[in-house]
Amino acid sequence: MMLHVPEVLTADEVADIRRRLDATQWVDGRETVGPQGAQVKRNRQLPELSPVTQELGAIVLQALAKQPLYFSAALPLRTVPPLFNRYEGGEHYGDHIDGSVRSVPGTTLRLRTDVSCTLFLTDPDDYDGGELVISDSYGTHEVKLPAGDLILYPATSVHRVEPVTRGARVCSFFWVQSMVRDDWQRSMLYELDRNIQSLRARIGDGEELVGLTGHYHNLLRQWSDV
After folding, report:
1. CA neighbor of 84 nearest in space, from 128, 54, 123, 112
2. Do 169 and 72 reside in the same domain of the chain?
3. How far apart, in whole angstroms, are the C-alpha atoms of residue 154 and residue 157?
4. 16/49 same-domain check
5. Which of 34, 83, 131, 205 is deepest in the core (most CB within 10 A)?
6. Distance between CA atoms of 209 and 173, rounded to whole angstroms?
7. Closest CA to 4 of 129, 109, 149
8. What is the rounded radius of gyration, in angstroms, for the C-alpha atoms of the chain?
């Protein structure tokens, strides 16, 4: 499942993060990938353990905690602390699949990458190119969202970032180990949850909604890996 989560960050939060990112030092993005990724990756990133990365990542995680749409779709169990990247001057990232297991920087913790997330920090009009291109069984999808919006998609997807030919594309990105590792099961739970919430808002709780809610939680209990 691929899902657009709008307005994760406010305009003021985006502006503050961008101001701090513009004042910091970037490093070669190839430092954080394996041999295959290094062949096709041309961008810059903030160092994983820098204080700025950790401080801004905490802001992103706090904002996500207020997003029921994100929680419903990702069912997060553990999250790699958000990282930040920058593309300009023709920089790009060719076709690749994210690694299946990531280490949490500065710890011995490892987690399975079920869901990949990109949070856009620049508006589409501020740069040319830079589309996130995701391929799945339904075809190829180009994603270029407003600043503050997030796209989440299965980490098993082949994806790339097209060359940026004008301006700069700045994003935060991270991975989630979901309580439910199977994407199809997560998709079914998401659709069931959204329909339950819609019905509850329209007609209130009743015997049928209690039953549907119980069905949702029984499926989550059956499928979750917690």
Report:
1. 54
2. yes
3. 6
4. yes
5. 83
6. 36
7. 149
8. 18
- How far, in Å, CA of 189 to CA of 38, rounded? 36
CA 202 centroid distance within chain: 30
pTM of the complete model: 0.94
Going by C-alpha positions, the residue among 23, 80, 19 that lies closest to residue 54 is 80
Say how many C-beta atoms besides its own lie within 10 A of residue 69's C-beta.
18
pLDDT tens column, 56-108: 999 999 999 999 999 999 999 999 999 999 999 999 999 999 999 999 988 99
Give the C-alpha separation, 71 to 208, whole Å.
24
Domain count, the chain: 2
- 118 and 212 inside one domain: no
To the nearest 10°, the Cα dihedral for 96, 88, 13, 69? -30
Domain hosting residue 44, numbered range:
3-178
Do 171 and 214 share a domain, yes or no?
no
- DSSP letters, 96-158, are E---SEEEPTTSS-EEE--EEEEEE-S-GGGEEE--EEEEETTEEEEE-PPTT-EEEEETTSE
* Residues 56 and 109 occupy one common structural domain: yes
CATH classification at residue 102? 2.60.120.620
Parallel, antiparallel, or unpaired: how do β-strands 158-161 and 101-103 relate? unpaired
What's the CATH code of the domain at 200? 4.10.860
C-alpha to C-alpha distance for 42 and 163, rounded to whole angstroms: 9
